[in-house]
Amino acid sequence: THTRTHVNAQMIRFILLQNRAGKTRLGKWYMSFSEDEKEKIKTDIHRVITSRTGGKSSNFVEYRTFKVIYRRYAGLYFSFVCDVTDDELAILELIHLFVELLDAYFGNVCELDLVFNFAQGVHGAG
Q: Which of 1, 22, 33, 46 has its CA 20 to 30 A from that of 53?
């Protein structure tokens, strides 16, 4: 007989790239939410991460049943939302790798690249 073992895989639930004003420039959802719920989530997450100013805050915060892991690069907040048990440092490295990928593709990525080349940005997000 074959026994199946359960592997506890890390899971990114959604990715948001937002500017300082709260405008979402790229969103990639790996689970189902209604459009109204997505808008509420985007607003909530932006409010939470932008209120965490000062050098004493970590780049992780719990939100609902998830964990938001974020970094700010220039004027953009890169938020990866995953399970609360996921490794924060691994996700921070993933965010950095994603920014490096976008930089390599666009040649020093900026917010306008994501606005005017949205399809390529989403394709890079998987």
A: 33
